[in-house]
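Lecture 7, part B: from sequences to assemblies.

Below are the input chains for today's worked example.
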Amino acid sequence: MTSLLLRNTRPMGAAATDIAILDGRFAATGTPLPEGAEVIDCEGAILAPGLVEAHTHLDKSLLGLPWYRNEVGPRLIDKIENERAVKVSLGLHPQVQSERQALLSVSKGTTHIRSHVDVDTEHGLAGIEGVAETRARLAGIVDIEIVAFPQSGMMIRPGTAELMDAALSAGADVVGGLDPCGIDRDPKAHLDIVFALAAKHGKPVDIHLHERDALGAFSMELILERTKALGMEGLVTVSHAFCLGMADRAAAAALTEALAEARVHIITTAPASTAVPAVKELAAAGVLTGAGSDGIRDTWGPYGNADMLERAMLIGLRNNLRRDDELALAFDICTRGGAAIMALPGYGLAPGDRADAVLLTGETLAEAIVTRAPRPLVVKGGRVVARDGAALRPAP
Amino acid sequence: MTSLLLRNTRPMGAAATDIAILDGRFAATGTPLPEGAEVIDCEGAILAPGLVEAHTHLDKSLLGLPWYRNEVGPRLIDKIENERAVKVSLGLHPQVQSERQALLSVSKGTTHIRSHVDVDTEHGLAGIEGVAETRARLAGIVDIEIVAFPQSGMMIRPGTAELMDAALSAGADVVGGLDPCGIDRDPKAHLDIVFALAAKHGKPVDIHLHERDALGAFSMELILERTKALGMEGLVTVSHAFCLGMADRAAAAALTEALAEARVHIITTAPASTAVPAVKELAAAGVLTGAGSDGIRDTWGPYGNADMLERAMLIGLRNNLRRDDELALAFDICTRGGAAIMALPGYGLAPGDRADAVLLTGETLAEAIVTRAPRPLVVKGGRVVARDGAALRPAP
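Predicted structure of the full complex, as structure tokens:
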């Protein structure tokens, strides 16, 4: 059953109407539905396209396990090394964990996920294989894009680049990267490998860049140079990009202009404790921006609930967005922005678009963000996949 | 009925036990309860003392009204002037609005509230009278402390100081103040009036200080000087105190030491978009720290749900608290810290303490913070006031 009539719903908060879904796609007003198509009374709830989780780590969540007592050290490398060890000591199962988290996302109205998945010389492709299996199991419930992610570094751990190559052959969709200076200590070599893998496999790039200030700006320049040299405009994303939060706003503005020119995208998680890209500045410059939860309940930290409406709120709080038009920007980042970065075909609410959508409770989109009530309904390809805040498929 | 047996509950996450409440207070283990005392199976939930909302504005919430479309200008004074006007245009009723917000707090497990309440020459004491009426109506459900708050300035609006004096005579518990430089343009006169009112009425002080960097540090020095000169150590609080987030960490550390020495307290809302006091630095220096939601769903901004567990999460996110012992600090600020600042008698879970408490769902306190599930039970003076996330008394 992928034909459906959503009665009495308000697309993006507009006036109430009836929305028909035919064969998994939104239909033009007045399109007749097949005999016996389900009719759902939406009771005036807002209809929005599915939320887009554009940056998370499905393979490493500890959801469903006993509480993990976090006593990890403060440095980035402490967290990376602790995680590799804990995966073994807890016997963490990437397939099970990724299915748990993905279904939590579904319950919150997310219809598309981009997940970075660890590739390293200790765990090989176990993460990639596990998340790929979850992707297959959840086909028709949520779309999952896999980024091969060298979490432990490539240059500092020989053999990783070969594993990245194998991961991309095995079905990873995007080439990941990580702090070319801060972690890998050799920015030229790191980025040359990332972009060579992208060229070899014909796949886009999404690089974690936590490096601050001038250091991060330097790495970002190297990314921009390679993007233009290889004609990869529109295919490269920088996640986090904390350097854009640098105190030197003129330098940040120049870098932002360069991103717009090369059509390099930004994905933010809007953390409150560090400098971050200013989403209004990115929007003004025309830089495509998406958002994600980052790790959810993992060895890095206990936070996260996979709710991209909560992420919109956190983007709003971080960027001091108070006006309704400003909250609309936060919502756009958590929907259309991520979808455009992932180049999702047929994303939206127009006739012909794929019926991947969520009902939101609230008088306005802004109210939906600040109240974050359980989602009454989530549909994927016209099929109901969650109701009243719960995914229909039980988690493993 | 203020005697009660809480069966199978885990005080602060410790091993499960039974906790008796006799005549509104926690009783020693084994104390016999009166015939017919209610027994509640807590199913292993964590028992904590009631959450403490130490900084909010009960009189100005728009809860329960149609969505307020925020199109307000960016400056502080834009928001202040817009609010005075909107109170009239919406016919905002301080009693009704404060009761709505206070009952929302109760539903989340808050048992004590410190509310700043506007006093100005346009609205006079209407806010104070409205919140005082709510305080009387909700006696036995939640305790409300009223701060007379010159939101629109005192020196720049003649007549306000006299109204502040009248508010304190009429039942306000605390003398408020606001940006002696930034808003009132005359820091000496502003603070001299605040402290003179405190001396006259024998009441403590709680001053909003949004001023940044060196300006805020200057105002804070003036507050410290008056605190010591008047022997008011332990009776003065600075809310927000953004200047403690200044880039010059040595200057912030010196100021923090001075706060500790004068026993001046800090209340934070941990906003993500501006510099804030670092809670670990305050704790290390011995500065008593509480927390609050600030305005909830008002003309200043749409955020807030009165959940002090969410505030603990936001404190954690803002201060990069990831370890369990760090989340314990965030929880402490949202409970014991605010209680100590408000000098609440008998606050805690020890025998003899007032039975103001909340059940939390989670394996640990940290899990309770990150999941923020509806509170199974809230008790005030041993009386059940909320169950399963809903206050028993209906909101107006």
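Note for the exam: Residues 51-341 of chain B form a domain with the TIM Barrel fold (CATH 3.20.20.140). Keep this in mind when comparing with the next example.
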